[in-house]
Amino acid sequence: MLIRPEMFRPSVVVIALGLVAVAAPVVAQPADPAQPPTEAVPDDTEAARRPEPPPPPPADDLAALRAQLAAQEQRLATVERLPDAAGQAASDPDTGFRFGSYGRILAGTDLRGGRPQPIAVVGFGPRIVEKSYLELDFSYGLRARNGALVRTVVTLAFGDTLFHDTGEFDAQPALRNFFAEAGFDDGTTLWVGSRMYRGDDLYLFDYWPLDNQNTIGAGVRTRKGALEIAAHGGVNRLLDDFQYQERDIADPELGATTVVQLDRQRTIGSASATYYAESDPAELNAKFKLHAELQGLPSGTRLRDDASPEALPRDWGTTIGAQAGVWGLAPARLGYRRHANLFARWSKGLAAFDELAPPFGFDTMLRTYPRASEIVLGLGANWDDRWGHVLFAAYGRRFVDADPNVRDRDDGWEYAVDVRPMAHVYEGVFAGVDLSYQARFPRGLMPSTQLAADPGVVSIAPMLALSPMGRSAYDRPQLRLVYRAAHLSDGALALYAEDDPRRAHTWVHFLGAQAEWWFNSNSYR
Amino acid sequence: MNRSNLFALASVAISASTSAVACGAASGEDHPADLPHVSNQGDDWRDEVIYQIVVDRFANGDPNNDFNIAPSIPGRYHGGDWQGIIDQLGYLDSLGVTALWISPVVKNTEEDAGFASYHGYWTQDFLRPNPHFGDLYKLRELTAGAHARGMKVILDVVTNHVGQLFFYDINGNGQPDDWLSGGGLSHTCVQICANPGRATECSDDERIYCEQGKDYLERIIEWDPEYDPRGVQGWSSLGFSGPADVRFTDWPESNRVPPPRPPDWFGWPDDKPWFDDQTWYNRMGRVYVWWHENDYSREFVREQETLGDFPGGLKDLDTDNPDVAEALTRSFEYWIEVADFDGFRIDTVKHIDRPDVAPNVRGFWGLFTDRMRAKAASLGKENFFIFGEAFDGNDELIGAYTKGGTDAAGGFGRFDSVFYFSQYYRVIENVFKLDAPTRNIECLYNSRVGRNPTDAFCQQNGYPAGPTHGGTPHATSANGGIGLPPQQVTVGFLDNHDLPRFLFEETSEGALRAALFYLMTWDGIPCLYYGTEQAFAGGVDPANREDMWRGNPARGFAPFDTSHAQFALVRDLIALRKVRSALRRGTVEMKWSTTVPGPRRDAGVFGFERVASDDKLLVVLNTSLQDSEACAPVADGGACLVSSFAPGTVLRDLAPGSDGLTFTVGAGGAVQVRVPAQSARILAPM
Q1: Residue A133 three-state SS
Q2: Which of A489, A509, B145, B243 has a beta carbon 3.0–4.6 Å from B20's, enabling a disulfide?
Q3: Distance, in angstroms, between B132 CA and closest chain A CA?
Q4: Distance from the A241 Cα atom to the nearest Cα atom in chain B, whole angstroms
Q5: Which chain A positions have a beta carbon within 8 Å of B339's beta carbon?
Q6: Contact map slice: A 465-494 vs B, CB within 8 A
Q7: Preceding omega of A55 cis (within 30 degrees of 0)
Q8: CB pairs below 8 Å between A and B: how many?
């Protein structure tokens, strides 16, 4: 069967799947159930969250060199004693067991007696109300004789099913990281496995506008001076009859046996080059990144419900993108994180869609390339200061699918703007507000009204936040008390099916408490 | 959005863009209803050649709407859509057809008894397009594309019934039972006709109905119980319990849910019911008695046909209810506006009103047709053509729908034309397939126009004096009508989606050739069923709804093949009709017909002239399997066809594929024309 729910209008999807509150927009959607944030710069954000290391000794300090050599000898000696990891870890912070986590959870009400709901009429709406999500990060590092650092990483992720919420003693984890990597002294790192592979995000939208791949594959990263080169190749094969289909046939002896009718892996390759213009954290630092992706999907044949064959052709996808980022302007001792990142991305074919969901809006040959396209411009920034901080994010996105419809509700552009100023009021306590606006401009008619409409949502969310680990907007854990009022335009309400009770509510509220943390992440390297 | 609201103002400030609009266009898009409409000014529907398309089976232009398709199963969706038709407009242009009749566009119930609604006749929502075929923009793109090529688009409209949206909960258990245990006759039969104390309440028709239908009526299916003259009744083993409760299904997966209330822009009062109200349906059960068979009175049969559910559990709307009539009327006014249609073909018209019985009762059609014309006129559209389908060989019955009437409120119109079923049975079936005498053609025509067919053959074969069809236009072109009398615009056809294809029953392509000559040279508006030009030969529904995009492998024809003789014949006949005004608009003058079947000199010959102000042609058809002449047997005097051409006029055969012979008109206009078997000569003066 060819059609998937997303082709049959967002309102239906919402009813069937209970997805995002207003309606899943028809433009390409992230299948990633919940994306943990990354701080904007530098790419190795996990490292950025850790305390600043002591400055290296001057090169001409012989005593310091001797100390370094001694430490090296001691480390090599430790390697020879493997698997005495405890001892190794004591002398080498990169080795041994490490636990990390990202988590967010909210408890609250919609003030109508129900569970709070995110509101999004765009592909990536403000994250002020998000579903709960948890990652448990486990890694183990080993130092080889040649100095290479070998790490194995496993990340379990849990969605929004909480026993204390549903009474269901069940939570199905997703294996979001499952890889091993080897890092060498020359700055080169190799990895193999299943991995979230991504760069910088727009925190307020939980959105990676430039590079965000989730594949099983391998990659390499190396840095020579100010230039960092990274490449990766991976595959996926979704359990969807767009990529995989089984069928039963008569067994040569008795009964039935299952055979694979369709088996086509999507191959995704990416490469990026980043130039760092770094100096003292108190100065202006910058980086410039170029990114490219190539996707491919082989041909195949699947069977419809009536056993008639349907040929699925070979398909392609390409992406090129760029990012310019600045950060710094604050001494490291202050712990401030000040940055701005500007993203641009242009994708065609398969790359215009999320790789963890089957594409839609095919051309007459059931291809997405070259007619489907996505253009994204994004801007994310944060300014920490003595008085508090301001987070900002905005993006605009134009999506066109490959189908022959010129006026098509799937096609159009959207944008979202979100700003969150927070003032420090007392010992790690901040008060502020999250203001956002999101709008979509589809090139088609709303199924429920048969009218053209531009859904829009304005949201205001005053909040109090407790951030005991520091004053930066990126210091975590953070505990918040939030009230959010979101106003849905007529167009936004029209995304709901006629009989959806939510259609009656122009205002959607949330009142509750949130917590968010991250530490020791292995995901964002 | 309430702009007085603080946050709404904030949103405007933040977005600096147009926020949501309550109606009309957004994102700079024109709503389809706001796009300009073609006027069709100065057009004449007699110039048209209609091409009937079952959308699901014509061309699949957009695989994205291939929801739940099963191309190998005839009774399921196959994937055709409006984009497919758009993609093939060039093909249709090359064939030469000038008007496309597309199957219904409204949203349907998905399935019923394992069959799908690919045909479009199972309405669930009168105001939304069927997503299997596209959206409103795509529909408008289709009509605009056709208009750009000079083609009109006719919408197939169903107002008699909806899909199987509810069942009669006869036993009150709240679920649709296929069979009720214990059997039982209908309420009227048991409680009234078989009750000595109430027997006087039982009409003769009802008594016959109960007696003759006894065996059949013992079966009760809650989806589709047989007609009960007093309405479907609740029943259990202990007896009858009053009118059966009606329960709408709530099966979203197959879209078998009550029709949703109309959107706000439709302006339907909140306090008025809608199609989800059971009182909007007649609830009498399924039509059981068809045709005027047995001893039933005409009134009883017609009552059943108009009040009963259509077979398949298609629930009959109470079109006598003014609210129902208004809702239907406004719904289809909307479709004219939003899609810029140029005409309507209307389904099952004899199941709504009975103008054959009560010609001066305005009824639903008297309201609906006049309102459609007025709506078209209000949009600047002239020549809005409305023809109805009365699936009946009775020429008086179907013709009654083309005649206006007068009631206390004044005169009213009805249909501009009907789908010419009487011609199908009398001529296409009898003459072209079964070799009946060609005088049948003449008889039927004379009945239609009131030439009072008095000869013995016509009378013996039951042709009424006529005129059986309306003789005056219902409205001028400027008022949305077509400005032509219905007698001149009957829609003739060889087959359609409800009939086996011509080649299924009569496998001779020669017979089809002869019938095509007739269709394209005879008066009225010819209507081709898609695939005729590809020699499709499917049997009854659904076998007659082949996938056009698969070609005709049995004949070796590729999809949309234009290279073979069958396509060329149809194309050339249409082309000839286009260039000869006499074939389109000319009057008909009979010149020869036979009353005797079987082989003889003039076997199967039918000769007639088409006379226009600037053109005149003599057409001589031969429906038989032998070469024949338009002359009497020598034993009968041997006289030949007498034309109106002057003696000495040389006539040249223009028929596609002809041998190019010429014929010279003799004394008194006589002309001896020999016509090859199952062919025709179309003779024009040189």
Answers
A1: strand
A2: A489
A3: 10
A4: 14
A5: none
A6: 485, 487, 489-492, 494
A7: no
A8: 158
Please report the DSSP string for A252-300 in residue order.
SSSSEEEEEEEE--EEEEEEEEEEEE---TTSEEEEEEEEEEEEEE--E
In Å, how far is A483's CA from the nearest CA of chain B? 15
Q: Which two tokens stand for residue A398?
A: 């134009």
Report residue B508's pLDDT band, with 50, 70 and 90 as the boundaries. Answer: confident
Topology of domain B581-685 in CATH is Immunoglobulin-like (2.60.40)
Cis ω before A83 (30° cut-off from 0): yes
DSSP state of B152: E
Cα–Cα distance measured from residue B40 to residue B38, given in angstroms and rounded to the nearest whole number? 6
Sheet holding B417-418, edge to edge: B417-418, B385-388, B343-346, B152-157, B99-102, B50-53, B525-529, B491-493
Band of residue B41 on the pLDDT scale cut at 50, 70, 90: very high
- DSSP annotation string for A87-111: HHHHH-TTSEEEEEEEEEEEEEE-S
Looking at residue A247, its amino acid is R
Name the 3-class secondary structure at A204: helix
Check pLDDT > 50 for residue B635: yes
Name which of A52-56, A247-251, B275-279, B633-637 the model is least confident about.
A52-56
- Which of A122, A310, A371, A405 to mutate against chain B (most B CBs within 10 Å)? A405
The full DSSP string for A486-517 is EEE-HHHHTTS-TT-GGGG-SEEEEEEEEEEE
All structural domains of chain B with their residue ranges: 166-248+282-307, 581-685
B239 compared with A432, residue with greater pLDDT: A432
Q: Take residue B378 and report the two structure tokens written for it.
A: 């209000």
Q: Which ranges of A118-255 does DSSP label H, i.e. alpha helix?
A: 163-166
- The answer to whether B248 faces chain A, any CB pair under 8 Å, is no
Model confidence, pTM: 0.89
B66: chain A residues, CB-CB within 8 Å: 2-3
Tokens 């069709």, residue located: B40
All domains of chain A in start order, with CATH: 5-52+94-140+199-214+237-519 (2.40.170)
Angstroms from A445 CA to nearest CA on chain B: 8
Query: Measuring CA to CA, how many Å separate A332 from each of A282, A390, B344?
Result: 7, 19, 77
A491: left (phi over 0), alpha (psi -120 to 50) or beta: alpha
Q: What is the pLDDT of residues B447-499, one digit of tens each?
A: 999 997 778 999 999 999 989 999 999 999 999 999 999 999 999 999 999 99
Spatial CA neighbour of B389 closest among B397, B379, B381, B380: B397
Residue of B nearest to A440 (CA): B27
- Cα nearest neighbour of B79 on chain A: A2
What's the whole-number average pLDDT of chain A? 86
Tell me, what's the pLDDT at A73?
57
**Range 287-316 of A in CB contact (< 8 A) with B:** 304-308
Nearest beta carbon to residue B20 from set A304, A444, A489: A489
Please judge whether A460 and B73 are an interchain contact, meaning their C-beta atoms are less than 8 angstroms apart: no
Alpha-carbon distance B291 to B288, whole Å? 10
Tell me how far apart the terminal alpha carbons of chain B are, to the nearest angstrom: 73
Amino acid A57: pLDDT: 41
Q: Which residues of A touch B69 (CB under 8 A)?
A: 1-2, 304
Phi-psi region of B114 (alpha: psi -120 to 50; beta: other; left: phi over 0): left
Q: Find, among A178, A130, A173, the residue nearest to A30 by Cα.
A: A130
- Chain A nearest CA to B27, separation (Å): 5
B252: number of CA atoms within 13 Å, CB side? 8
